[in-house]
Write a structure and sequence with these properties.
This protein is α+β, with helices and mostly antiparallel strands and 144 residues long. Helices cover 44% and strands 20% of the residues. The protein contains six helices and four strands, in the order H-H-H-E-H-H-E-H-E-E. The protein has a four-stranded antiparallel β-sheet, sandwiched between helices. The longest helix is centred in the first third of the chain and has 21 residues. It is globular, with a radius of gyration of 14 Å. The N terminus is likely disordered.
Length: 144
């Protein structure tokens, strides 16, 4: 996994690395604008996710989301995200459509928490890397 994480692969792996990097940039940008857009100020978030060990597999799942909705600028419906999660996710939550339910700030590790709390409700994050692998998050709700 070390070489994939650094984008040392050819072709698709290199493009995928830039997608992963973009997710980190967007998460940081969300933090900077949290006063204006309300992101990052809530106590709980409700989310679904897809987790894959390999970067190529998460990018394949993201491409399915892009082809179906994201390329048209549409938000991915939770039921459709759930189908892709059931097909691709390697997390036990994949059997439940990737549903993580409500979780408080501080429960999830670093980058996962940052992206989850800084993704607009109804929006899908680009692929990003955490200590557990590669993720895509669908934010479904926020509350204090």
């Amino acid at each position: 996994m070390g070489k994939d994480a650094k984008g040392g692969g050819k072709g698709k792996a290199k493009a995928a690395s830039s997608e992963v990097g973009d997710a980190k940039g967007k998460a940081k940008a969300g933090k900077a604008g949290k006063a204006a857009d309300g992101l990052g100020t809530c106590t709980y978030v409700k989310a679904r996710h897809i987790l894959c060990e390999k970067q190529g597999k998460i990018n394949e799942a993201y491409k399915k989301l892009q082809d179906g909705w994201l390329s048209n600028g549409d938000k991915v419906p939770p039921a459709e995200f759930a189908k892709i999660a059931a097909e691709y996710s390697e997390c036990p939550s994949g059997k439940k459509g990737g549903d993580l339910g409500w979780f408080p700030r501080g429960k999830m590790a670093g980058p996962f928490q940052d992206v989850a709390f800084n993704t607009v409700v109804g929006a899908t994050s680009p692929p990003f890397k955490s200590t557990h692998g590669y993720h895509i998050i669908l934010a479904e709700g926020r509350k204090n």
